[in-house]
Specification:
Helix content is about 35%, strand content about 25%. It has about 900 residues and is of the alpha+beta class. The longest helix has 23 residues, at about 755-775. It binds one RNA strand of 84 nucleotides through helix 7, strand 11, strand 15, helix 11 and helix 21.
Length: about 900
RNA sequence: GAGGAAGUGGCGGAAUUGGCAGACGCGCAUGACUUAGGAUCAUGUCUCUUUGAGGUGAGGGUUCGAGUCCCUCCUUCCUCACCA
């Protein structure tokens, strides 16, 4: 009697065996092609989320596939273990970040193991260990030596909630991306990485197979714009005011200037009469958060400084204003305002009654454009007017030098020394220091005003354990004298590194996590780099994915890869371009959302007070089953806050207050019921603990087994899109694996096969191989599994018909199980062993696709009339055009449509790739 | 406001990239086996006025032929956002 498929009995068994036999150890082997598959490492928050499974198990399947295809595959895993949550846990739960983090890592390692993934744990790297952050510090020093890391004063994002500064990338809509709390701008001295030096190179995605959307997001984030810089001088003091503009062709239309309220010159140029008003405005804007300043269609407020500047192009006197629509963080923090040709300047001019002068005249207007008639700025093409010698220049939609008018004006500015061509970026330098404890120490010291790097031989600067975690706006390390006081004169830096720095190079640490003489072993880097396929979420588009590119380029430029390049040459590989980018191919998975759930349908009876019922009895009944004559309130629980139910019925919401001693009847929950057991409606939305729609992978594994969960995640979604969770669908993959198991357990047929049927099943097998290959290649895991299900159905039918003999059965099964192995590694291994084949299935060669075997002998000739399919005729696969057209014209459908007439034309399309040929008859 | 992605049965989703729309799965229906069925097996399942015809958010276009390409519009999601 054959055994049933019991996942739990086999999964842990094989996981242990794989580990014991070091099945997934990956070692440098110059004789084999390498494949570095990487999936984003988790933050050890405590529990593995279903999202981790969704990101990682398909990546694992693909890595396994590459391995079976003969690649030497590296697929490592680790933890991005520094960061705020550990410190928050320390504050709120009084547990040390080390303890909290390491306990979580322990737990998550076990959860990761339960996936049955081919992670090489020997290569695990944890960013919060001294062995790791020693090298983060070491990199910081190298960056400092090469002028990439510098200490500077800048207006930075300060989070009151977190009591730390944040990088621009960590601020979304003026709020901290983690807590959603507002962020204010503060002038502070901090450590920066000069990422802007690499802006242009980071815009170049040559040779990178990354999603277009990520490239676009990075491009927009870097925000390169082309234009000119010009310097205005104040009328009296002669203070230079530098401005940047993308429209130098409108310089003659500048009728006023605007400084950002934070601009240095504001205090100096303001006249005595205006000082009170200006100070008040500056104070007011300083109190506004970024959010206030970003409200759409905000009224254009501002104040006149009392000062005037001279426009260098025409020596005109223009008033200088301050306004919060000019941002200190972009360009020079000062603008020339051209109200006729810029919407914001136009609104400001109208609001404050400032002059507007047209200097670009659009062509083809009946009446020339003049100021009084304008209701908005004109920012289109035209001819320069009122611009002295530049009059008549043609301005187009093009930007920069490609616009003839701009080109001419820039030449003139440069020739006369009044300005110059300029490129501006939205990207700011990367603010790297954090006023927090749980991060890599910055290996710097101070003696008076001098900055002194910690000598390499003293690295790592270790984090002390006995610190207070009370957030005060300064790093907890500033209260730890033994840490910061090196001697009487030397003081350590007490800020720590942004965690994104640690995760910018983890792909390198995996190569040799135990190396203590260098961040990574040159020989390993020479073999494995770059990462061939990187998978993870798109939310890192302008953070991690930009930082790690920057990091890679800096390492290349300061010679960190030189030894690796030499090792490559020694082994006959060309290092050119290998160290320019960290990851060649990037794919983003979508997000698994919480599933939709109906709320309980309830009947409530009690007293109606006003519009609300005070219920004494609430009964859950079958959907829409309202007993005749029921007098109370009823409907689906759309929402529940404490004991108030919001009932939805036919689009109307009614409210029911469940009294404390009310009788609650929920037939499907035994025992006494209470109000908290009533289920409310859940919409499709992101999973979160507070919404109560999270899915726990451990519970799923306990119920269905890891293989079923893996296959469900790969089968039920378009991986790159994600979608709502629906556990009902898990029955599909479960049934599939069950069927494969049963076919294997039934053993080889004892009846002889039928030659034609056997040829057919082998043909279908090879068609399946082709589609599984394509699915894995293109991250279309759902189609790769669907095709295997389909083949299983065919095989099952053929076996039922007793059409397959033992030899073919064995050959087919050997390939079916190998196809299955990347997706469901445990069951594949078990069946492989039960069929008596050699351990391990994961070391077997991938089934070889044979186009000859896959080819159909007969195909369906599709007869179309005017492009509509009307009939099919079975024909030989290699049918010639003449014969196909002859058959098509003779078909019933053609005869009916033609009714004796001759067709206008016929089009023959041969079957492509073994597909069906077609004849289209135009009548 | 700028940029991007997407819209296909009751549901998740396919469609070899311009060539039989709805693969595969869920659900549902009918039947078989069964004391029982949330098990298993079989069959069916886009719609309609069914010798046929129509159908991929709406409308138009290109083409022998359009889910796929082009234009206009609608809807949803994502990113950035007073960027000078």
């Amino acid at each position: 009697m054959s055994e049933q498929y019991q996942p739990h009995a086999i999964e842990v068994k094989w996981q242990r065996k794989w580990e014991a036999t070091e099945l997934y150890r990956s070692q440098v082997d110059w004789d084999k092609p390498k494949h570095y598959a990487l999936t984003m490492l988790p933050y050890p928050s405590g529990d593995l989320h279903i999202g981790h499974w969704f990101a990682m198990t398909p990546s694992d399947a693909r890595a396994r596939w590459m391995r079976m295809r003969g690649y030497n595959v590296l697929f490592p895993m680790g933890f991005d273990a520094f960061g705020l949550p550990a410190e928050q846990a320390a504050i709120s739960r009084n547990i040390h970040p080390w303890k909290w983090t390491y306990a979580n890592i322990e737990r998550m390692r076990e959860q990761l193991r339960s996936m049955g993934a081919m992670f090489d744990w020997e290569r695990e790297a944890i960013s919060c260990t001294p062995e790791y952050y020693k090298w983060s510090e070491w990199f910081f020093k190298r960056f400092y030596e090469h002028g990439v890391a510098y200490r500077g004063s800048a207006l930075v994002n300060w989070s009151e909630t977190l009591q730390t500064v944040l990088a621009n990338e960590q601020v979304i809509d003026g709020k901290d991306e983690r807590t959603g709390q507002p962020v204010v701008q503060k002038m502070m001295e901090q450590w920066f990485f000069a990422i802007t030096k690499y802006a242009d190179e980071l815009l170049d995605f040559e040779g990178m197979d990354w999603p277009e959307s990520i490239k676009i997001m990075q491009t927009n984030w870097i925000g390169r714009s082309e234009g000119a810089r010009a310097t205005f001088h104040t009328e009296t003091g002669g203070h230079p005011i530098e401005i940047y503009t993308t429209r130098p062709d409108t310089l003659w239309g500048a009728t006023f200037m605007v400084l950002a309220p934070e601009h240095d010159l504001v205090a100096r140029v303001t006249s005595d009469e205006q000082r009170a008003a200006v100070d008040a405005y500056v104070r007011q804007t300083a109190q506004e958060t970024e959010i206030d300043r970003m409200v759409e269609d905000r009224e254009k407020t501002g104040v006149f400084t009392g000062a005037y500047a001279i426009n260098p192009v025409n020596d005109e006197k223009v008033p200088i204003w301050i306004a919060d629509y000019v941002m200190i963080t972009y360009g020079t923090g000062a603008i020339m305002a051209v109200p006729a040709h810029d919407q914001r300047d136009f609104k400001f001019a109208r609001a404050h009654d400032l002059p507007i002068r047209v200097v670009i005249q659009p062509e083809g207007l009946a009446e020339p454009l003049t100021e009084p008639a304008m209701t908005e700025a004109y920012d289109g093409p035209g001819v320069m007017v009122n611009s002295d010698a530049m009059d008549g220049s043609v301005s187009t939609w093009r930007k920069g030098r490609k616009n003839p008018a701009i080109n001419r004006v820039i030449d003139w500015l440069e020739a006369t020394g009044k300005g110059e061509e300029a490129v501006n970026y939205r990207l700011r330098d990367w603010l790297i220091s954090r006023q927090r404890y749980w991060g890599g120490p910055i290996p710097m010291m101070y003696a008076d005003d001098q900055i002194i790097p910690v000598p390499d031989e003293h690295l790592p600067v270790e984090l002390p354990e006995d610190v207070d975690f009370v957030p005060t706006g300064r790093s907890p390390l500033t209260y730890h004298e033994p840490f910061f006081k090196v001697d009487e004169t030397l003081r350590r830096e007490t800020d720590t590194l942004d965690t994104f720095m640690c995760s910018s190079w983890y792909q390198l640490r995996y190569l040799s996590p135990n190396c203590d003489t260098a961040p990574f072993a040159a020989e390993e880097a020479a073999y494995w780099l770059p990462v061939d396929v990187y998978t993870g979420g798109a939310e890192h588009a302008v953070m991690h994915l930009l930082y790690t590119r920057f990091f890679t380029k800096v390492l290349r430029d300061i010679g960190i890869y030189d030894d690796a390049a030499a090792a490559m040459r020694k082994n006959g590989r060309d290092p050119i371009g290998v160290f320019d980018e960290p990851m060649t191919v990037l794919r983003n998975q979508g997000q698994v959302l919480g599933g939709e759930r109906q709320g309980d349908f309830v009947l409530c009876s009690g007293r109606v007070v006003g519009e609300r019922m005070q219920a004494e009895r609430v009964e859950v009944v079958d959907w829409n089953e309202v007993p005749a004559g029921f007098e109370g309130f009823f409907g689906e629980i759309g929402h529940r806050t404490e004991n108030i139910l919001h009932l939805n019925m036919a689009g109307v919401t009614s409210f029911v207050e469940v009294l404390p001693d009310a009788e609650i009847v929920i037939p499907h929950i035994p025992g006494e019921n209470n109000v908290n057991q009533l289920q409310h409606h859940l919409d499709i939305q992101r999973m979160s603990k507070s919404k109560g729609n999270v899915v726990n992978p451990d519970e799923l594994v306990a119920e269905y087994g890891a293989d079923v969960v893996r296959c469900y995640l790969m089968f039920n979604f378009d991986w790159q899109k994600g979608g709502p969770w629906n556990e009902n669908n898990i029955k599909g993959p479960q049934g599939w694996l069950n069927d494969v198991w049963k076919i294997a357990e039934a053993g080889a047929p004892s009846t002889p096969g039928d030659a034609a049927a056997e040829r057919d099943i082998v043909r279908k097998l090879h068609q399946t191989i082709a589609i599984v290959n394509r699915g894995l290649e293109e991250f279309s895991f759902n189609t790769a599994i669907a095709e295997q299900m389909k083949f299983k159905n065919s095989l099952k039918a053929a076996l039922r018909a007793q059409a397959i003999g033992a030899d073919v059965w064995r050959d087919v099964m050997s390939q079916v199980i190998r196809l299955l192995a990347p997706f469901a590694p445990h069951i594949a291994e078990e069946i492989w062993a039960r069929l008596g084949w050699e351990y391990s299935v994961h070391q077997q060669p991938w089934p070889q696709y044979d186009a000859d075997k896959a080819r159909e002998e007969t195909v369906d000739l599709v007869v179309m009339i005017n492009g509509k399919p009307r009939e099919t005729i079975a024909v030989a696969a290699d049918i010639a055009r003449e014969r196909a057209e002859e058959l098509a014209l003779a078909s019933g459908a053609a005869q009916r449509s033609l009714a004796g007439n001759t067709p206008k034309r016929t089009i023959f399309v041969p079957g492509r790739n073994g597909g069906d040929p077609m004849v289209n008859i135009v009548v």
